[in-house]
Amino acid sequence: MSIEKVREYLKQYNKDNDILEMEQSTATVELAAQALSTEPARIAKSLSFQYGEGAMVIVVAGDAKIDNKKFKNEFNFKAKMLTPEDAIKFTGHAVGGVCPFALPKDVIVFLDESMKRFKTMFPACGSSNSAIEVTLAELEEYSKCQKWIDVCKDWE
């Protein structure tokens, strides 16, 4: 199970016991916000995109949407989200549980500026009913992100 891979991965940071597993689904921003009693914007959405022959994950605030023009300016190609099948194939996580942790080494992670207005965020942990509260510095470290980028709209 993907959540077990994430739990094992987070052990190196002594965060494996901080994973929250809910009875209800956290597969969407709205469901996660309800389950965690927080505002939707504080849910860290991990969006998976094609990146050459592989994949990348961009983590964004729950109220943000990818701005295609900003994306193209940043990466010099058009955004194409992975299919649910390709999300599992490339990231090892199913849609609804995709997260920036325990990814294959060739999957590059980026963090979007839309999250910088919060002290902590709630990304998923590899399943559709899990999350963990982390600071932005922890998210940056644990995700081994390439860099912070600005590719979103509708959150300002």
Topology of this structure?
Blueprint (H helix, E strand, L loop, with lengths): L1 H9 L9 E2 L7 H8 L6 E9 L2 E8 L3 E2 L1 H8 L8 H8 L16 E5 L7 E4 L6 E2 L2 E2 H8 L3 E3 L2 E2 L3
Parallel strand pairs: 2-6, 3-5, 5-9
Antiparallel strand pairs: 1-7, 2-3, 4-10, 6-8
Question: What labels describe this entry?
Answer:
YbaK protein, alpha/beta, 156 residues, 6-stranded mixed sheet, globular, two-stranded antiparallel sheet
Q: Helix proportion of residues, in percent?
A: 25-40%
CATH topology category name: YbaK protein
Q: How many domain units?
A: 1
Report the β-strand fraction as a percent range.
Answer: 25-35%
Q: Oligomeric status of the shown chains?
A: single chain
What string, H for helix and E for strand, traces the elements in order? HEHEEEHHEEEEHEE
Low-pLDDT runs = none
Annotated CATH homologous superfamily: YbaK/aminoacyl-tRNA synthetase-associated domain
> Class, according to the CATH hierarchy?
Alpha Beta
- CATH 2nd-level architecture: Alpha-Beta Complex
Mean pLDDT: 96
Shape: globular
Structural class: alpha/beta
What is the strand arrangement across the widest sheet? Answer: 8-6-2-3-5-9
> Roughly how many Å apart are the termini?
36 Å
Number of strands: 10
Task: Report Rg.
Answer: 14 Å
Biggest sheet descriptor: 6 strands, mixed
